[in-house]
Amino acid sequence: MKKIFSFLICLTFIFSLAGCSEKNELTKDGYHNKLNVYNWGDYIDPQVLKDFEKEYGIKVNYEEYGNNEEMLAKIQAGGTGYDVIFPSEYMIEAMINQDLLQELNMDNLDNFKNIGQEFKNLAYDKENKYSVPYFWGTMGIVYNTKKVDTKIDSWNALWDPKYKGDILMLNSSRDTIGITLKKLGYSLNTRNLDELEDAKKALMDQKSLVKAYEVDTYKDMMIAGEGAMALTWSGDAMMLIEENPDLAYAIPKEGTNLWFDGMAIPVTSKHKKEAELFINYMMRPEVSAKCAEYVGYSTPNKEAVKLLPEEVRENESAYPKGDILKNGEVFVDLGEFTTEYDRVWTEIKSY
């Protein structure tokens, strides 16, 4: 009987520990104390993560990816447990079509009111059911005025043999192929195989001029004066110019990619309530402004813009005047035709 009694006491103790363990996984507000965030490299002010953890008692596990396709592959593979991701517009559309995103509960996102009307209900997520805007901008050429002595106003500058070995391109298939299509007078969303082959040939012709294909390290190279010019996103350009005043940014006359990155919750998330809490927090004006200043990209948060320094608000490279949708073409999901872009990119890289 003593053995049985002792066994029952031990069992009670074990279950009580298990209960404590489960209880410790929750904050006093009933939130799980962890959140798995998957974002682009160098794309958030680390301090806002610390502030979120302190305010809500939720530990943020933070990981970075290099491009949309890398992120998509992980989500498609499953088992990642990511709760918040930051896909670009065409990837948001693709993930919606593949049932890889959860619908947002707008009742938990009252700070959505801070987002400018021109950034709401865009074609890739017409009712903002699955995403909210995080950053936006253009694509162009950042160049070193000490090395480049001609006016940069065309994508053709990236094919100028004068700068052989001094040109940096993005290691990103949609972006690099996209601007090449614009250079040739085509849509960056073309589904025309002949046009895509023209872009492939142009990039193969350019390859001997290219110093490197990069996503993040090209920034250090441009700051250090190790490149004459680079294909870049406007936000990166603003940051680079701040670090090196010899740099300048140009949006080519043939047209540009007008891009949007959003915040979304993948189907892998097991902490939707916490994820929406985080997304709502990120839409606070002071938080959004802090991230915009840290990263250098343009915020769609109209209240956050008011908190930015005047020289930033008035910089038309970062905040173009007028109808932003006339400044460029937005990527769309190409569906199954994406495999053709992947094929072309593989052939270019292996050439």
Q: How big is the Rg?
A: 23 Å
Beta fraction of the residues? Answer: 15-25%
Distance between the termini: 79 Å
Mean pLDDT: 90
Helix percentage range = 25-40%
Q: Report the uncertain regions.
A: 1-24
Q: Briefly, what CATH class of the largest domain?
A: Alpha Beta
Global outline:
globular
Q: CATH architecture of the largest domain, please? A: 3-Layer(aba) Sandwich
Placed side by side, the strands forming the largest sheet appear as: 7-6-8-5-9
Q: How many DSSP H or I helices?
A: 13
The CATH topology assignment of the largest domain is D-Maltodextrin-Binding Protein, domain 2
Find the count of extended strands (DSSP E, 2+ residues): 10
**Helical/strand content category:** alpha/beta
Instruction: Please provide the ordered H/E string of secondary-structure elements.
Output: HEHEHEHEEEHHEHEHEEHHHHH
Protein name: Spermidine/putrescine ABC transporter substrate-binding protein
Main location: periplasm
Pfam families: SBP_bac_8
Coiled coil: 186-216
